[in-house]
C-alpha cells in the first residue's frame, strides 16, 4: 500500500479505501474497514470490526476499539478516547459485552474528548474539546463539559463554533 507509512502495520485482511493515508506508528487490524480518502494520523489504532466511512480525519493518538462505527465525513480530534465496555475488569473477560458506538455523518469530536460506549453521536453534531459524553447526542447540536451537556444548535457548515 503506497499511502501507508513504513512504520505502520496493516494486518492481512484489512480493507483500506483508495486515497486513504495512514501515517507513522499506526496499527490497523485485519477485520477493520477504512473508507476512501481518509487521513489516519500518527499513532492511531484501529481494532477488528471497526468501520470507518469515507473522507474521515482521525487525528494523532486515537484508539478505535471494536464496536465503533464512524460514518462518512467525521472529524476525530487528537487524543480522543473511546470505550467499548461499561464495567471493565482486568481479571474478567467481557468481550461478549462490547457496546456499539456510532458516530454519524459529519460529526466533529474535539481534542481529548471521551466518548463512553453505547453512545450515538448524531449527524453534524459537535463535541467540544475535553467533553465527557455519557449519553446520546442529537443531530445538529453542540455539547461541551463534563458530563457533556447540550449548549445549543449547530449548522452543517458552522465556522467558528467554540471548539
Brief overview:
The chain has no helices and 21 strands.
How are the elements arranged and paired?
Layout lengths: L8 E2 L4 E2 L4 E2 L4 E2 L4 E2 L4 E2 L4 E2 L4 E2 L4 E2 L4 E2 L3 E3 L4 E2 L4 E2 L18 E3 L4 E2 L4 E2 L4 E2 L4 E2 L4 E2 L7 E4 L4 E5 L10
Parallel strand pairs: 1-4, 2-5, 3-6, 4-7, 5-8, 6-9, 7-10, 8-11, 9-12, 11-14, 12-15, 13-16, 14-17, 15-18, 16-19, 18-20
Antiparallel strand pairs: 20-21
Describe the structure.
By secondary structure, this protein is mostly beta strands. The chain is 0% helix and 30% strand. The chain is built from no helices and 21 strands. It has an eight-stranded mixed beta sheet with strand order 3-6-9-12-15-18-20-21, with no helix packed on it. A six-stranded parallel beta sheet has the order 2-5-8-11-14-17, with no helix packed on it. It has a four-stranded parallel beta sheet with strand order 1-4-7-10, with no helix packed on it. The radius of gyration is 15 Å and the shape is globular.
Amino acid at each position: 500500500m503506497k499511502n501507508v507509512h513504513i512504520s505502520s502495520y496493516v494486518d492481512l485482511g484489512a480493507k483500506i479505501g483508495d486515497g486513504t493515508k495512514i501515517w507513522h506508528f499506526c496499527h490497523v487490524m485485519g477485520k477493520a474497514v477504512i473508507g476512501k480518502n481518509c487521513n489516519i494520523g500518527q499513532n492511531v489504532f484501529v481494532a477488528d470490526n471497526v468501520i470507518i466511512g469515507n473522507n474521515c480525519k482521525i487525528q494523532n493518538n486515537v484508539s478505535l476499539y471494536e464496536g465503533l462505527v464512524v460514518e462518512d465525513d467525521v472529524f476525530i480530534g487528537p487524543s480522543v478516547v473511546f470505550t467499548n465496555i461499561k464495567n471493565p475488569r482486568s481479571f474478567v473477560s467481557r468481550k461478549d459485552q462490547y457496546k456499539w458506538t456510532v458516530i454519524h455523518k459529519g460529526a466533529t469530536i474535539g481534542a481529548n474528548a471521551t466518548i463512553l460506549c453505547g453512545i450515538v453521536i448524531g449527524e453534524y453534531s459537535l463535541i467540544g474539546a475535553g467533553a465527557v459524553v455519557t449519553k446520546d447526542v442529537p443531530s445538529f447540536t453542540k455539547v461541551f463539559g463534563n458530563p457533556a451537556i447540550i449548549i445549543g444548535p449547530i449548522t452543517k457548515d458552522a465556522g467558528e463554533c467554540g471548539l
